[in-house]
Please model this.
Amino acid sequence: MSEEREKVIPGEILETGEDWLPGEGTRRDGKNIVASRFGLKEIQNRLVKIIPLSGVYIPRRGNLVIGVVTDINFSGWNMDINAPYTSFLPLAECPRFFNKEDLAEYFDIGDMVVCKVKAVKRKGVDLSLKSIGLGKIEDGMIVYINSNKVPRVIGKEGSMIKIIKDATKCDIVVGQNGVVWIKGKTAENEMLAKETILFITGKSYLSGLTEKVQEFLSKKFGEKK
Amino acid sequence: MISNLTKKRVHDYLLEGKREGRGLLDYREIEIELGVSKNAEGSARVKVGKTEVVAGVKLDVTEPYTDHEDEGTLITTLELLPLSSPRFEAGPPKIEAIEIARIVDREVRESKFIDFKKLCIKKGEKVWGIFLDIFSINDDGNLLDAAGIAAVAALRNAKMPKYDEKEDKVEYGELTNKGMPLNKETPIILTFHKIGNKIFIDPGQEEEKASEGRISFGFLDGNINACQKGNDAPLKLEELSEILETAEKKAEEMTEKIDKAIEKALKARENRK
Amino acid sequence: MAYTKRFDGRKFDETRDIKAEVGIIPNADGSAMFAFGDTVAVAAVYGPKIMHPQHSQDPKKGTLRVTYDMLSFSVPERKKPGPSRRSQEISKVTEWALSPVVNLDEFPNTVVDVHIMIFQANASTRCAGINAAAIALAHAGVPMSDLVSSVSVGKMDETIVVDVIKEEEDYEEGEGATDIATAFTSNSGKLTLLQLDGKISPKKLDEAVEKARDACKKIYELQKKTLKEAKE
Model:
């Protein structure tokens, strides 16, 4: 993440020549590799691709997501995971025995649940709870960010999120769908964690983001003293 | 859809008197820009934090109402544009929009902010008719108070158009130097929200959804000219007394703040010319 | 009486001052403003999101849905708030102008809403709206093969002019005014909007469309610059 990447727009010619290969967000048009969306141009060897800066969350199998229950039926829960697809958490994907008679007792409408994407089909997304650390969120704070900024908030091998966790002493779960769960000991800590996350998502793609975040946090702690 | 968790969180924090970056009775920053449409006789864009509304004034010559033969007329409308929030749908104004327009209308009218008698051209026949139209541009809570500010700012920005009496025609595009006949004092709308035993003002979007009850006051120069208790939560009389006491002080402070913002915008407008 | 000098002194092939800004409505997934002089349009994009009601869903691909409207005080004589026959037609032709570049194959049963609002009007409002909407759609991260750029051209008596203003629309000398609205895919230059009212020969119309295409190249440069300088 050392160099500044160039912003490109749909229809823009990114590279010319048969050697280049079109990657995500691009297409081949004759000799040219052309952008099919707005974002940052990235080149990996011969592969030209676009890193999106905006746009809706596209679920992928295995993604950890945080959703809200929108409806309950006899076989499970309809969920909103901030994606343009219907999402369903079937009772069969719950790791322990649930009484079918009263599903609202487990997850009621409006409850937030940490889930995993089990399958993405054309008609919708299937969710699952069969993994460690999944289930209903009982406490804490939710922050919504654009899902394309999730890698930035997590950082390389989780380096960025670790800085925030350590500084604010909060537990933080970042859903790939851009829903972030923060749980801290005090309201102040949670609000600081939220502010830091929004600081990161609000900055344009700059090098040395880690240093900037550390600076931001030490300034915030300075204010308190 | 607001989750149960967020609702509870916002609720608990407000109960503890904790809010992101401000106190329960602190207002967000107010920014005003005047003359946003050249084709309006007056217009204003108002930002309260991330909430944004625009208001415009159009004037026309019309017949007076038979029970107010020597007074101009006022029609206030508000549209919650789908452009401003995913929760607003296209179509005719719904009750939320109608209520805001009605409260703004009441405050502007009852505070005697506009001298309607001075808008009479010929008694019983011709008077100036004011259209005050307000639109939401971005909703981050408290559109009602913001709409009130925008209405007043647009009226202050307005200039009378030329009127050809012989032809009985308003010459749009040709504004005179004459402003509208307005009271020197500024009317404002101030809405109080309640959570448990705590009151707070100027809610953001999540806070507005978590609010248990609201009451809005239209103030001019220390008096209440309009009031509306909204939502179905009842209010104890002690709570009302407390709100009224706070409202009196807060209204004075807010009037000063809004006056200053309008002054600043008027100056910026002069410099641009 | 030939039209030899424009009312506002512009060259025949010159647009008014054009301005654009991106990211002006925080709630929207993408948003932009585009102005031709005193004509100011704002566009906000929401989606793709699941289409309601369900019977409007297209199981093959997502739907682009445009609404165009004007602030009541954007015109000299107050416009009654709410949709009119005019605004509904413009909404539809704007949708047609934009949809060739928008690719919603990946999003069956969804809708992308584009809301266009005219803040201030001095002719060419649909063109300003299309330019703003194209920037806003890209800004929202919607998959697109290209941008769309739009401009109006006019025939004042015998003279072709670019970016018509209200005074020119009302020109009555000689053959009078013909007002032509156009839009093109920005790079590939295909026509996506063509409307006109007035009187013009087929040959002259062909010439007018050529001039519009040239003007759109300059408009595209501004759209491009605006997106590249977006603060995200």
Q: What stands out?
A: The mean pLDDT of chain C is 96. The longest strand of chain C covers residues 39-50. The two ends of chain C are 51 Å apart (CA to CA).
